[in-house]
């Protein structure tokens, strides 16, 4: 409910503002330790990112309530935003976007970690689990750049707004695609953020969508094996449908104004 989200936001904001906050039956304050605030900034940013790969990966709709709180905290406490991006980029280099290259002297295990895979006891996580986590992180990022905390002062610009989404999309399309990964993440991103980008960039946006259909999808097809066609065909259908209808639907789970009255 909207009221619960406000409570969570106020509690985090109060903690970061140096006010005493009751948690787990005891009162804590960042002023209790000289590095208290730095520590809380770091851990909070890390927790937001963890929610992307855990909550949002399993329930796509969860991106919006988490993102609206993260966006509002970022606006009031910019340091959290810097640390959020640092944690996000480390866990998901595709959010930069960046595809790490294998350098001489880097072990395969280390390289897989650089690509965002979880490696435990020399065992690499399954591809579908990896893609699910990356999807959760990209969906959270795509939600943050278009949402603002509705009770903020609204004077300044969004601390990390849609222009960053436009830049991410343009940079993705300037890179050579990766099988499986590129189609999955472009679909995640456009499902969440496409409607907002369409409204903001209008004609330019539709030029970008045409470029994706005419030029970029064939490039993904060229490197995709028959076993990896699932994500590509879903992406292809999505782009086709949007171009036919000249519309990108609002994302599922988006927070309507009525939500804040709950």
From TrEMBL:
GO biological process, one term: poly(A)+ mRNA export from nucleus
Keyword terms: Coiled coil, Cytoplasm, mRNA transport, Nuclear pore complex, Nucleus, Protein transport, Translocation, Transport
Location (main, coarse): cytoplasm
Protein's UniProt keywords contain Glycoprotein: no
Any one cellular-component term (Gene Ontology): cytoplasm
Signal peptide feature range: none
Compartment annotation: Cytoplasm; Nucleus, Nuclear pore complex
Superkingdom, taxonomy of origin: Eukaryota
Gene Ontology MF annotations: inositol hexakisphosphate binding; phospholipid binding; translation initiation factor binding
Matches recorded under Pfam families: GLE1
Role: Required for the export of mRNAs containing poly(A) tails from the nucleus into the cytoplasm. May be involved in the terminal step of the mRNA transport through the nuclear pore complex (NPC).
Family: Belongs to the GLE1 family.
PANTHER family in the cross-refs: GLE-1-RELATED, MRNA EXPORT FACTOR GLE1
Protein's recorded name: mRNA export factor GLE1
């Amino acid at each position: 409910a909207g009221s619960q989200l406000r409570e969570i936001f106020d509690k985090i904001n109060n903690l970061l503002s140096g006010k005493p906050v009751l948690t787990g039956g005891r009162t804590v304050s960042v002023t209790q330790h000289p590095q208290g605030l730095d520590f809380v900034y770091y851990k909070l940013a890390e927790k937001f990112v963890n929610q992307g790969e855990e909550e949002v990966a399993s329930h796509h709709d969860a991106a919006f309530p988490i993102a609206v709180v993260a966006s509002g905290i970022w606006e009031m406490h910019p340091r959290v935003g810097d640390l959020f991006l640092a944690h996000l980029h480390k866990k998901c280099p595709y959010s930069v976007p960046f595809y790490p290259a294998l350098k001489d002297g880097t072990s395969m295990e280390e390289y897989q970690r650089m690509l965002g895979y979880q490696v435990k006891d020399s065992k690499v996580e399954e591809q579908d689990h990896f893609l699910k986590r990356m999807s959760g992180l990209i969906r959270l990022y795509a939600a943050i750049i278009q949402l603002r905390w509705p009770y903020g002062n609204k004077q300044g610009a969004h601390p990390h707004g849609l222009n960053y989404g436009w830049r991410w999309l343009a940079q993705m399309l300037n890179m050579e695609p990766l099988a499986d990964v590129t189609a999955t993440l472009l679909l995640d991103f456009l499902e969440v953020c496409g409607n907002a980008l369409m409204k903001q960039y209008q004609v330019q946006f539709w030029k970008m969508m045409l470029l994706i259909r005419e030029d970029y999808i064939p490039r993904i097809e060229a490197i995709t094996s028959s076993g990896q066609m699932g994500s590509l065909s879903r992406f292809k259908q999505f782009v086709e449908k949007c171009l036919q209808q000249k519309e990108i639907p609002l994302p599922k789970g988006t927070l309507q104004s009525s939500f804040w009255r709950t």
